[in-house]
Amino acid sequence: MAEMTISDGIVIAIISTISLVATVVSLGYLVFALACIVLWRERGTEHRAHNPGISLFKPVRGANDRLYDNLKSFCDQDYPNFQIIFGVRDDRDSALPVIRRLIDEFPGLDLKLSIGWDENASNPKVATLLVMEGLADHDIWVIADSDVSVRPNFLVAVAAEFVEPDIGAVTCLYTASAEPRLSLRFGAMAINEWFLPSALVAAALGSLEFCFGAAMAVRRDILVEIGGFSALANNLADDFMLGNRVHRAGYRVALAGQLVETEVTEKNLSSMLLREVRWGRTIRAVQPASYLGLALTHGIPLALISCVLTSFSTLALGLVAGALTLRLVIHYAVRHFLGVEDRVIPWLTPLRDCWGFLVWLLSYARRTVDWRGCRYRVERGGLMKPIGTR
């Protein structure tokens, strides 16, 4: 084996130092994220005089065992003036019986059904929204995914944010529930223990310039001002772009004072990996600098890399212990302070952190994603270009 040269030693020393510094920064992030979790408080859930009319968009594609309960939670809203517009792509969609059942069960509500999609839109969700918008009657538009469930005062909490005239859009943080299966637990942990704390950090730093897709709201006139749903038709990250366009138009994006719940449905680890890599490539396309920084949210693998590079130095081993401890505390904190109901499985935490770091690396491998049976190339700025089916 060739002897190590002085220059080789210098390079290794520099890389080791960078790794140690990155790990220390990661631990600082985890401490701040933990503080944000502990300090989170719900707000805006009491009825006020400000109750603007709300048009609630529910684009749906396909049905599962929880679809009825998810959609019904929106019908059960304790709010005086709202309508729900359900939208499906075509009349063969398996969700139609569930939607029609709800329309029959709630004759006193303003429930409408839209069937069809705009063939000029590459984004399947936006293609459905473009047809649905013709049925909207009110000035506040709420868009929520079909796998989301909410509490009865959800619309109250959203409407409360629009009291301020400079608020153009409202977005919601979300937790995840899952059945007792490894892939589902892994997926739920990614949302509850990695996404959710990072979103709280972003909000605390005042850097909320986008929306989260699970549930978001926008003023109708402002949506028109930024180009309407048509402006999002070919964006993979339609939620990000909606909030970002509102922000660039001079309005604020507010964080609703209530969490909503989504579900993880991937049946195996490979399908979960594909979904998370798609998310990663989407974020990388629209926020390249921020996505690069997301590596710092994975303290355990960064600390392990530092161990290897420093021949398991005492400092590096201490950083591993610190990262593991903070991640375990966050594992319990999201359940205690944020009401996450997912089962406590602490031994999965280091595996999930290393898995997330792997996803981060894989997101840089290429620019293609698979979504709803189609393959797309993600262009600069998050534009999606269909390149075939899979």
**Mean pLDDT metric:** 91
Which structural class fits the helix and strand makeup?
alpha/beta
Radius of gyration: 22 Å
β-sheet strand percentage: 15-25%
What is the helical fraction, as a range of percent? 40-55%
Separation, N- and C-terminal Cα atoms? 47 Å
Q: Any idea of the CATH topology of the largest domain?
A: Spore Coat Polysaccharide Biosynthesis Protein SpsA, Chain A
Order of strands across the widest beta sheet?
3-2-1-4-7-5-8
Total count of helical runs of at least 4 residues: 13
Give the overall form.
globular
Largest sheet: 7 strands, mixed
Q: Briefly, what CATH class of the largest domain?
A: Alpha Beta
- Stretches where pLDDT is under 50 for at least 5 consecutive residues are none
Count of spatially separate domains: 2
What CATH architecture of the largest domain do you see? Alpha-Beta Complex
Overall strand count: 12
Task: Kindly report the name of the CATH homologous superfamily of the largest domain.
Answer: Spore Coat Polysaccharide Biosynthesis Protein SpsA, Chain A
Order of helices and strands: HEHEHEHEHEEHEHHEEHHHHHEEE
What does this structure look like?
The chain is an alpha/beta fold. The chain has two domains: 13-40 and 296-389, no CATH class; 54-279, Spore Coat Polysaccharide Biosynthesis Protein SpsA, Chain A (Alpha-Beta Complex). 47% of the residues lie in helices and 16% in strands. The protein contains 13 helices and twelve strands. The chain has helices at 6-39, 67-75, 96-105, 124-132, 154-161, 182-204, 220-225, 238-248, 269-286, 288-293, 299-309, 314-337, 348-362, and strands spanning 54-59, 82-88, 110-115, 140-144, 167-171, 174-177, 215-219, 252-255, 260-263, 368-371, 374-378, 384-389. The chain has a seven-stranded mixed β-sheet, sandwiched between helices. Helix 2 links the parallel strand 1 (54-59) and strand 2 (82-88). Helix 1 (6-39) runs parallel beside helix 12 and helix 11 runs antiparallel to helix 12. The radius of gyration is 22 Å and the shape is globular. The chain starts with 5 loop residues before the first helix and ends with a strand. The mean pLDDT is 91.
